[in-house]
Amino acid sequence: MKSILYRIGMLFSWMIIFNYYLLSKWFDFNFYIYIFMMLFIVFMGSMIMLNVDKTFPKKIIRVDKGSQLLILFTYSLYLEIIITGIYIFTQDVLDWNILLTHFIGVLILGNIIFWSGMIRVYIYSVQLGFKWRILGFLCGWIPFINLIVLFKIIKLTRNEVKFEKENYLTNTSRAHDAVCQTKYPIILIHGVFFRDSNLFNYWGRIPEQLKQNGATVFYGEHESASSIEESGLEIAKRIKVIVNETGCEKVNIIAHSKGGLDCRYALSNTEAKDYVASLTTVNTPHNGCLFADYLLEKISPKIQNFIANKYNAAATRLGDKKPDFMKAVIGLTSKSCEQFNQHVLDMSTVFYQSIGSKMNHASSGRFPLNIMYPLVKHFDGQNDGLVAANSMEWGDEFKFVTTPKGRGISHADIIDLNRENISHFNVREFYVEIVHDLKLRGF
Question: How far apart are CA 389 and CA 334, in angstroms?
Fold first, then answer.
């Protein structure tokens, strides 16, 4: 009820602001009414900044303010059209000076409201992404289409505010429970063609969510593209460093994509097995990818070497010491994984479990997953845009996730790479549940 009254009050006040000059000429207000209206306008105009709950993080508050300003701009635009239309049709003789002055005033005030809101959501919103920022800029000057884009921006940012507020309240309510405070710390292992970076976290908002709920989080810090054996050795060294520096005795590993194979090798072929309590693989191609076999067979060695050399050169500039594109890709073929599974056996002292997901259609994922999905589906069936669903299962337990309708969960979505809020799937809470389960198991 309070929210509804607030909206009605704001709409009324902005109606007066937009049509102040027109109304004053229409009803011939005296000087004292002018003063009263101006004070009322200043008071109500400031209410939008005071109506937002300040208990939430500043970023959420700023997106909230911005989206509310855009809503008020939209409503005010409709009211302006109605009131101006009534004025025009009820006057016997139109005073064009009044209309021109009114139009200039509305243009100035409308731009103040609009840009105050738009700048806030452009700077602080996560869910707008690159796509809607560009569309907003390109379509902002096209009549009618700009309103459609504006409605979409408002919808995205309002949903973002609702989602983030609920997430914040959930974390706040259980802060003292430390639901993710496991006996052993968590080490997150990235997949192929990525590196751990402070500028752009491979795991999106997941690590921060885990930390807020008591988890201690480390990263693998291994190279982006190497053979499974070489990556496994790197990870084993990293585990030993963490154990020695923290005295934690063991770690819990959560590994995505090829990282799961790298970790399985490390556990089976190095002393890392003595320092690992659990391994959770996420969308890992344990049985390989048939489409990878196909591509290697169809693409000429010359093109393969060209792509590999370009990647290796770029990866070296970004920090890799000995990147090897071809070894990384070959390790993901079904033939290689079949041999791998015969020789790399699970350790009885380590708890193994796996997670998988799938996209519901090609448009579910961003580039290049949207292009890869039908190709992988042709060879491997249901998939996440890269890995077949039937290749993801490994260990004592397997959890498979998707959404009941809509996009499903892609290879990138399952690690929050794009920081998207997905309907029917809260990826941050999903990892809280995973880590909480490890805690309950005594790990």
Answer: 14
